[in-house]
Amino acid sequence: MNYSSDIAQGVTVPAEPVLRLSGITKTFPGVRALGDVELELYPGQVTALVGENGAGKSTLVKILTGIYQPDSGTIEVDGQETRFPTATAASDAGVTAIHQETVLFDELTVAENIFLGHAPRGRFGLIDWAAMNTKAKEILTRIGAQIGPSTVLRDLGIASKHLVAIARALSVDARVVVMDEPTASLSAAEIEELYELVERLKAEGKAILFISHKFDEIFRIADRYTVFRDGEMVEAGMIADVTETQLVEKMVGRAVDTIFPERDRRPGADVLTVAGYSHPTEFADIGFTLRRGEILGFYGLVGAGRSEFMQALFGVTRPSRGACRIDGKVAVIRSPVEAIEKGIVYVPEDRGAQGAVTAMPIFQNITLPSLRTTSHKGFVRMAEEFALARKYTERLDLRAASLDQNVGELSGGNQQKVVIAKWLATRPRVIILDEPTKGIDVGSKAAVHEFMAELAAEGLSVIMVSSEIPEILGMSDRVIVMREGRIAAEYDREGLTPETLVRAAAGYDGEAAA
Amino acid sequence: MIRDFVTSREAILVAALIALILLVESRFSGFAAPGNLASVFNDTAILIILALGQTLVILTRCIDLSLASNLALTGMVTAMINAAMPGVPVVVLIALAIALGLLMGAFNGLLVWKLDIPPIVVTLGTLTIFRGLIFLVSGGEWVNSHEMGAAYKALPRFEILSLPVLSWIAIAVIAGFAVLVNRSALGRAFYAVGGNPHAAVYTGIDVGKTRFAAFTIAGGLAGLCGYLWVSRYAVAYVDVAGGFELDVVAACVIGGISIAGGLGTVTGAVLGALFLGTIKNALPVAGISPFWQLAISGAAIIVAVAFNARSNRKQGRIILKSAEHAT
Amino acid sequence: MSLADGTRPRHLPDRLSGRGARVLKSWELLLFGIAVLIFLANTQASQYFLDPWNLSDATFNFTEKAMIGFAMALLIISGEIDLSVAGIIALASTAMGWALQFGVGTPGLVAIGLAVGLLCGAFNGALVTRLGLPSIVVTIGTMSLFRGISYIVLGDQAFNGYPESFAWLGRGYVFWVISFELTLFAVFALIYGVVLHKTNFGRHIYTIGNNPTAARFSGIRVERVKMILFLLTGLMSGIAAICLTARLGSTRPSIAYAWELEVVTMVVLGGVSILGGSGSILGVVIAALVMGMVTFGLGLLNVPGIVMSIFIGALLIGVIAIPRLVAKLRRS
Fold this sequence. Notes:
heterotrimer, A: alpha/beta, 4 domains, six-stranded mixed sheet, 20 helices, globular, C: two-stranded antiparallel sheet, disordered N terminus
């Protein structure tokens, strides 16, 4: 850790930040994403932004790049108050960002992806493709990417796409560069190239906001840190003044154990056994055993293949290899219908797209997979539906005006309760909860945790995918960590620390960093 | 580079087109003669122009079903003005036709942009409205050849370098589109909006405004085609170009313009239109009843869209490092 | 189960607003109001309008289209569309006319009409659900293909000479002024209304239209439901082909030309969202009445059908645009 402080001391710290955010607040229906946050970025310095998923980092990036407008608060560039009403305004002010690969265009060439919106113009204001390709090649060479500028983006792998996203950010003459998990999908060699690039950008006097989950790289290249938790800025300071353990503590918060329900942890007989589950591109060799009344946590970085595996287990996609047994009997699951029949249900991470049917009423959402039991000879029976819906919404303490209210009108937490109620009404053996408390308020979170504990106590087996360390530590009996589509480690909850999880997920050995 | 072209959709279309021409030539020699091919091109000119307009709209993930009605209405208006006021120069009439077409296109675009009404609903409505307006302005009467001025009828037929003006206009529109689509910021915005509307916002592109522009340009071209159609066939009546809107969509689909947006080329649209135009011209020559044409274009659409879907199959997310290096 | 704080769980009412309040705010009521206004305008416009036989004649303007409209409504609610319905009519009618040349009787003709409709529906459905193609493009293609086959068979000829018993299916009366077609229309309105609003299958249709991914994740066999809907649309087109052919007494390849647009207009006017997920059969029924009455009323006034189409087109855009415009103005 010494080398980072050397760098920090080597640079004469400028007094004035190039960009300053103060009092920024942003709320969405049902959830406050950012509350009164501060951020300062200094020229020639890297500021690491640290926080768990849902801490508000990506909302901040969107405000910095003109995609979202803050509800209140000010943005200052060089001490001058300003606004970023559009993406163009932000980039004109010299703020550029490396977004994830999802904001690129698959059908356009690499050069065009880099220059769309500010392409070099020739005669009559027409796009100069030759100049564009040359400039694109220059930038790609600068970041060490071996990609032809006229390649169509769809032909590239995920890492190459990410390099294009980086090139795009560098194609404008920026003073502030936001890097949103820039190394997430890069190989070791490419990461080294990126570090060199960051050093060059620092030398050029650019201010860099570096968002990352990997503590080794934060300590290697960052000068400053800012920690976000639950949409609020917790602390900021110099990297040289802090240790990794302290940073994890600030990020996770101290009260890890206290807020979670106490429960009897004595799992019963084996219920579900998975062996050798593999997919051509998404995951490989996943195997584990789930017991009655057990909560099995799945931890990992975003994109580690956890959701992809769960969807294969639920029959949405089909694994290329692997077998699964329920109560010792081989279970073939080729579709969600078959999974539900065998008692496996899945509460997806993407509530809006995969879980809730937002334009339909609560009771119809809940009875959807149970229509066979509430109906008579194929005809719906509303009274039965309302009765079933009421039974489970009351159990989950749903806050709504009526059972006929559309799910889209509820808060995120209550929407999640509806999706959970929908599956409980099918009386499953195994429930898979994929990021069950993502994007929901603290009160609903506690209710979901409470409920999860009750279900386990009643003998239901729970698989919980979560990227939140306190949730994983507070709720799980055992934890499986996935990395790059494979199981990286499996732990008993006893004695498990946040650091262990973070290291296993990021993929570097404990002894090397210690 | 060469391999890219050989496997590209355009190359397949060119090959299909050549095969089609040779097939007809083998049964009726003279079909592939340059003079005859030029007349096929001339016959297809209007379809090409409309298909290019429709291409812009489809690129932005929309569709315009009102183009043929727009064409018929502007055609009728110019014919009536010409019949009533023979003194008005043809150039003014053409300008008027384009302006009227632009206006109708802008109306569609505005409803899509400002009120966010699905394009298929908007243009299904304006399809019948524009068509009905023809009846209102004409009272159901025809404007026949003898009522039209000589200059009005002569312009598209006038030959420059032994090619009619109609063909030259199509060539000019193709050239203009090649520049617009490939070399202008607006042209690239069409691709961005259709390819990934979410990401377009990140690059500072206004999705609604870009769609509005596509509808307006397509409308203007339909207006131009209104004059061209009516003067070429020297007759205007309510049902001019009835059902032609679907031929236009067919040309685009055959040309590889993806209905899902963001994918397609000017060359593809032109080739798609030429493919349909060649079939239309070849059937009588090859001794096949022209009644086969509809079924053949229908089958061609189905084959084309099935082919598109095969080449654009979505691939799953690549998480495993080994999988990435393998692809 | 008791809650953490020991209080009893809160009781959620089934519904907040009563049935009456929901009806008052419904699209169907607005449309019904329009229908009543048009009805009154028609009575003012012509003294012949209220004649029972005239009114009965008027129903032929919409019965066949509406029968297809019911199935189309289900299909559009599920998020798909079928623009080939008029092409199916042409093909089914041509097949019946062709069979007629071999002396096939009325039951055989009906069977052929239904079978061709089902086959066409199966073809569309297979292309959409098996190959995953967008239905709007597929059915633009099959629309040309189906009608194109009619043209190949018939050219500029026509099939004539349908037997009297077959003609009854298009021209016959069941009781007094109640025609066979009107009876079919009423029966199908009831059947489709029950299927869409009262069965699990109907609930699945709505769910798929609102969120196909969530539907799949909830264990609904999305592809199978869509396949059934394409089959139903084909079948209804076959039935419409039988009625229309019987009524006209002849088959030309241009039969039912451009009906697909009128059917879609009727469905959308009836309050079915073109984006899928919402709509009712009652709305389609009222929309059919509105369109039928407008056609008939303007016909009594000697206004040509083409002008009526302006009204229908404006209605289609207006009914969707005006609420959005008002909401937009209210916000700003």
